[in-house]
Design brief:
Rossmann fold; VWFA domain-containing protein; mainly alpha; about 425 residues; elongated
Length: about 425
């Protein structure tokens, strides 16, 4: 949490920048975005040096100069090679926002980022990333070294392979996996849950929403380990606990088909059971004050927000009737009020949304491609407003099978848990 009076440089360094604070500050002081502090660092270069991925992403989305050097001549990409953490992810973001991969650092012997990657970060994944983005292997520094000659001096065979073309890298990934820390398949402690959550956050490009000091993530990890420890006699699956913890990062909107056909073959009864059970599954590890969902229907007007799990069945106690304008209503009742109106109103999305659409058939009274076109339209809209992995690309996915729910629901973890704060 930022202290009152902290500068943009201080917040970039500490990782406390938020989208709303930065938006407000730059509306008043736009030149601060690339301004040097007393030590000759820009906000971006400080965030890079300290490994503050969320701050790096926020600054780049506001068009911070990805190539502006600090006073000693180093670029943000070069600085990233010795960042305190998250070098690969920070390099991905910088390259996605125009960082010059071959910029020679004159004051540092005309070294380039890939030379620093080989000698400083020593991370084969980072080297591979730079090679894939056009890093020169033959450009020489003032000592006559090239990236290739430096790699030849390395004792790490994975560094050598990282320079090879993709078609000659057979077996490289397996070797890297043995060299680098693997994932935690069955988290046993709060810290392991936090580590897994932040890995997932990085994979999904959500660092600007959940920075490294996020209290929300800390609370979810705390609840996850409490849930595990509260049922020691049950064969609790760590993978299911991990998935539930990840799900708790999202705000869930159940978008339900309440057309006339849903009244057949007990489809409506099945929908009620699924939504009721999934509410606990998807929110049970969230902080208590955030353990809510949104519920919207194709035909019935429902304006209640932030429903508690105990309220769900009451909201579903009616007879379905009407048509299936699933795409049109997705826009009107879900995406426009929850996403577009918020962003257009100058506000920010404090958590990502997970929209779960439940339907039994094809659309009526609208083009059959309407649902997909609405999703595509909002993909472009949120991308243009900076809500995506790199600020450039976003790919919503339409899932047709509920295998994830099946896996979760049939594990002991779907059972209601004791209250957790």
């Amino acid at each position: 949490m930022a202290s009152p009076g902290m500068s943009i440089h201080d917040q970039a360094k500490e990782g406390t920048l938020t989208r709303s604070w930065l938006q407000d500050h730059l509306s008043k002081e736009p030149d601060d975005l690339d301004e040097y502090n007393f030590d000759g660092y820009t906000p971006l270069s400080l965030a890079v040096r300290e490994g503050q991925v969320g701050a790096v992403k926020l600054l780049l989305l506001k068009k911070a100069d990805a190539n502006k050097t600090v006073r000693d001549g180093r670029t943000p990409l070069y600085i990233a090679m010795s960042a305190k953490q998250s070098t690969e992810r920070i390099a991905q973001l910088l390259l996605a926002h125009g960082a010059n991969v071959n910029f020679p650092i004159e004051e540092w012997g005309n070294e380039t980022a890939i030379m620093a990657a080989i000698t400083q970060s020593r991370d084969p994944e980072v080297v591979r990333l730079l090679v894939e983005n056009g890093a020169s292997l033959t450009r020489a520094n003032d000592r006559g070294d090239t990236a290739r000659s430096l790699a030849d001096q390395s004792a790490n065979p994975a560094i050598h392979k990282a320079l090879l073309p993709k078609d000659k890298q057979e077996g490289w990934q397996t070797e890297l996996e043995s060299l680098l820390a693997g994932g935690i398949d069955d988290p046993q402690t709060k810290e392991e849950f936090k580590e897994d959550l932040f890995r997932f956050i990085e994979q999904q490009g959500l660092e600007d929403i959940f920075p490294s000091n996020s209290q929300y993530v800390n609370d979810v990890a705390e609840n996850a380990i409490k849930a595990r420890n509260s049922s020691p006699s049950l064969p609790v699956l760590g993978s299911s606990a991990r998935i539930r913890a990840r799900a708790s990062l999202y705000k869930v909107i159940f978008y339900c088909d309440d057309s006339g056909s849903m009244d057949k073959d007990d489809r409506w009864g099945s929908l009620k059971s699924v939504v009721n059970a999934m509410t606990e599954v998807m929110t049970g590890l969230a902080p208590k004050y955030q353990r809510t969902v949104q519920l919207r229907f194709i035909n019935k007007d429902e304006t209640s927000s932030d429903l508690q799990p105990s309220e769900i069945l009451g909201k579903l106690n009616f007879k379905p009737n009407g048509g299936t304008k699933i795409g049109t209503v997705l826009n009107d009742k879900v995406l426009k009020p929850f996403v577009k109106d918020v962003i257009d109103g100058g506000r920010v999305l404090d958590r990502p949304y997970l929209v779960i659409a439940i339907t039994d058939g094809h659309p009526e009274s609208e083009d059959t491609g309407k649902f997909r076109s609405v999703v595509s339209e909002y993909r472009d809209y949120i991308t243009s407003n900076g809500y995506s992995k790199h600020g450039k690309n976003c790919q919503p996915r339409i899932l047709q099978e509920n295998s994830l729910f099946s896996k979760l629901y049939h594990s002991p973890l779907h059972q209601p848990q004791p209250d957790r704060e």
